[in-house]
Inverse folding.
């Protein structure tokens, strides 16, 4: 049951004059789109949000817009090949998500405009020079901001007060999360929790790491929004259930897949907002002059069935804050 939307950081979409939006382009425009998994229902919803918002802005498929969509499916070679094909086609703008897609595109072109949606800090990832003035050929929207990772820890304590150890699961090759782990570690002491960095790269790592972590009592898990964690979310959720570990996840689809609880940005909303940047670039603005924006809407999702299986009584105060409760 849907309840309310959390308000996040400032950074709403900048207004674009109605008169300019009403203008019809004098030629067919082309967008290259490079996304993750085609069989991910949530991914399809996000792409639809982007396309529908573009339509509202006056860009209609096969009338004045052509969309060249590629799904990389988490495969490195397929990502590189798809990115190279999109760049070679010379579209007016490329839209890409997640950060791994952006990194591949940035190695291929410094001139084609890129609008991204990504989890980590784009400055640390090297996608832009700064949030306020990205410079270069890329700009976009972040799925996270600095304080959200400490909220994961507080939510874990709210739903499982007995937790005294928290596994921080992430791919060690993703250096953009080092600062976020440091923030979690800084807050953990005040909550009586010992953070345990837990590096994983593949399903075997996930199984070994969570099994070893569960050997000691009072453990909980925080799944950082890393592409590896997203790709193997079914394995992570299954291992958390097997070892009876309460876990907080970054995206709703972990919880609809039987995870315990998620907190994160409303992703379809971000894709709709990203459409405004695609629109503005196709009308002549430069990506390097459009500031990177933070999320403004967040959602808390709780799976009561999973909580019951873990023997957790979810506080009414936490349920009252939830945007969606799965029963």
């Amino acid at each position: 049951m849907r309840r309310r939307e959390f308000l996040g950081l400032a950074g709403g979409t900048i207004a674009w004059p109605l008169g300019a939006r009403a203008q019809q382009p004098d030629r067919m425009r082309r967008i290259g789109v490079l996304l993750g998994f085609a069989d991910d229902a949530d991914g399809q919803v996000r792409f639809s949000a982007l396309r529908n918002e573009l339509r509202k802005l006056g860009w209609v498929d096969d009338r004045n817009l052509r969309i060249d969509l590629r799904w990389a499916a988490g495969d490195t070679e397929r990502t590189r090949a798809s990115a190279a094909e999109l760049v070679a086609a010379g579209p007016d703008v490329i839209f890409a998500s997640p950060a791994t897609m952006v990194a591949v595109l940035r190695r291929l072109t410094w001139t084609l405009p890129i609008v991204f949606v990504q989890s980590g800090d784009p400055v640390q990832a090297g996608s832009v020079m700064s949030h306020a003035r990205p410079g270069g050929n890329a700009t976009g929207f972040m799925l996270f901001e600095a304080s959200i990772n400490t909220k994961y820890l507080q939510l874990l304590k709210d739903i499982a007060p007995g937790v005294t150890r928290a596994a921080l699961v992430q791919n060690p090759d993703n250096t953009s999360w080092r600062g976020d782990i440091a923030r979690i570690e800084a807050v953990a002491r005040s909550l009586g929790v010992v953070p345990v960095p837990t590096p994983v790269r593949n399903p075997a790592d996930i199984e070994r790491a969570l099994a070893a972590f569960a050997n000691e009592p009072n453990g909980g898990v925080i799944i950082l929004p890393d592409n590896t964690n997203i790709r193997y979310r079914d394995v992570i959720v299954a291992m958390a259930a097997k070892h009876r570990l309460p876990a907080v996840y970054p995206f709703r689809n972990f919880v609809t897949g039987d995870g315990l609880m998620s907190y994160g940005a409303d992703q379809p909303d971000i894709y709709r907002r990203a459409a405004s940047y695609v629109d503005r670039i196709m009308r002549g603005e430069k990506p390097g002059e459009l500031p990177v924006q933070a999320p403004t809407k967040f959602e808390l999702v709780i799976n009561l069935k999973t909580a019951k299986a873990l023997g957790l009584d979810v506080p009414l105060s936490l349920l009252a804050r939830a945007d969606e409760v799965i029963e």
Observations:
- Residues 6-144+265-298 form a domain with the Rossmann fold fold (CATH 3.40.50.2300).
- Confidence is low (pLDDT under 50) at residues 1-24.
